[in-house]
Amino acid sequence: MPKTLRAHFDGKAFWPEEPTDIAPGTKVKITIEIAAPGKKEKRSFLETAAKLSLDGPADWSSRLEDYLYREPLNENS
User: Fold this and answer.
1) Tens of pLDDT along the chain (77 residues)?
2) Other CB atoms closer than 10 Å to residue 63's CB: what's the count?
3) Considering just the CA atoms, what is the radius of gyration of the chain in Å?
4) What is the model's pTM?
5) How far apart are alpha carbons 20 and 57 in whole angstroms?
6) Which residues make beta-bridge pairs with 16?
7) CA atoms 43, 44, 48, 50: torsion sign
8) Which alpha helices (DSSP H) does 14-59 contain, by range?
9) Closest by alpha carbon to 60, among 51, 48, 47, 49?
10) Measured between alpha carbons, how far is 18 from 5 in angstroms, rounded to an integer?
């Protein structure tokens, strides 16, 4: 079943610009079509942040000042 993936070439390898469900070691056939320059797909901040898979405490927003200004963490606030 054919799939279309956007990728960039670093001089040695093609790197997908989005996650794929292809198992490592799977042989694929690649057909090259040069994308038009300057036509970059726009993403919202939330889409970008969601793809980063950030790991951190669940209370980031409620203790923002503690994290930003390095105030001592107070478990009662």
Assistant:
1) 788 888 889 999 999 988 888 899 999 998 888 877 766 677 788 888 778 877 777 766 777 777 778 755 555 65
2) 14
3) 20
4) 0.41
5) 28
6) 7
7) negative
8) 45-51
9) 49
10) 8
